[in-house]
Amino acid sequence: MSQPIRVHLRIPGTAPMPKLIRLIQDVEAAGFDGAGILDSQMISRDTFVVLGQAATNTSRLTLFPAVTNPFTRDASVLAGAIQTVEELAPGRVKFVIGTGYTSASTIGRKPATLAEMRACIATVKTLLAGKTVDFGGTPGRLGYASGRPLPVLMAASGPKAIEVAGEIADGVLLLVGFNRGIIQRGLEHRERGAKRGGRRLDDLEIIWASRIGTAATTQEARRLARPTAVHWGVLRWGGYWLEPAGLTLPKLEIPDAVHQIYPDLSHAPDWDAAIAATSFVPDDVVAQLCDAMGLVGTPADCAGRILETAKLGVRNLYLMPLLTFAPPEREIAAFRDVVFPRLRAGS
Question: Which residues on neighbouring strands pair with residue 65, listed in sequence order?
Fold first, then answer.
């Protein structure tokens, strides 16, 4: 019997805490398997406070920061924070860390280096295991490490980062896109890193991150996804992953309006303004980018894509709704009413 398809949903902490907790409860009631809480200190509420409240107000969801970083908190603080949350929801917590994006850009610094990632992950894993870490000549140990398994995953969007994750972490959250060519290339890099670390692939968890945008028609879903598609495919992540996705972009002149969106296109509070700023990209290019980066279309379309990629072994998903400053009510309803019933029938 094949493994079930597990679906986790990103929760941006951009609403007041009472609304956030009700939203997370709605996510659990809709049938999702987990919730990742955005960690971006200038945009959202503190991820570990939200995780603690979520832990006490849910009974089934897997919970994790999505994703934290090595520079806004010391590694010892990160280890203590996630261990504290795990005490509230034993066996339901993961630790996911990446190089930082808006948590870095909104305070004028660069993302963490892979060397910093290696050091932070090693420290967090050692502390969670109840062992001693040398802090510049001072030995330190987490006095309340539970000893229960608490997986430490690394979020990765580039080939080198994926290989580092395969080498040192308990698993990887892949932020790369979502089509056959990208999936196959991502798996190759993970395997390369695992071999370098002398590790078995079966021992490493893999979660596939995908943008999710649903609407009554595919055309409307693609229109709504314009800021994220352009940000991913044109401005930021697309460069390396366009080739395995089978895409070649035309030459595009990026207008100043794009750079005036705070903090960036894919996290814009004014989504209509972000959509308007992407008018320099033709509709057919946006359509190709949407198909490569994630699940953009009708709920039935999304269910079909998930079932298709499951044939490639993709059975653990982390879905990131398009909007950061609005609750993902449309996606919750789409999965509760359409997608989950189709997955149960087809998987």
Answer: 37
Residue 208: strand pairing partners: 174, 317
Segment holding 75, helix H or strand E: helix 75-88
In angstroms, the CA 255 to CA 190 distance is 36
**Hunting for tokens 């649903």 — which residue is that?**
214
- For the record, the structure tokens of 94 come out as 């993961």
Which segments in the chain show pLDDT lower than 50?
A: 1
Tokens coding 330: 């449309």
- Output b/e per residue, 97-136; b: 16+ Cβ within 10 A: bbbbbbbbbbeeeebbebebbbebbebbbbbbeeeebeee
Other Cβ atoms closer than 10 A to 198? 7
Q: What is the pTM of this model?
A: 0.96
* Paired strand residues for 135: 138
Concatenate the DSSP letters of all residues of 296-341 into one string.
EE-HHHHHHHHHHHHTTT--EEEEEES-SSS--HHHHHHIIIIIHH
3-state secondary structure of 154: strand
Structure tokens at 288: 């190709």
Burial class (CB in 10 A: 0-12, 13-18, 19+), 23: buried
Report pLDDT for 198: 96
> Given the DSSP bridges, would you call strands 294-297 and 205-214 parallel, antiparallel or unpaired?
parallel
Rounded (10°) angle between helices 180-196 and 159-168: 50
Q: What is the CB-side half-sphere exposure of residue 13 using CA atoms within 13 A?
A: 24
Structure tokens that stand for 188 in this block? 């190759």
Token readout for 207 is 């979660």
pLDDT at 236: 79
Whole-angstrom distance, CA of residue 201 vs CA of residue 181: 20
Burial of 283 (0-12, 13-18, 19+ CB in 10 A): exposed
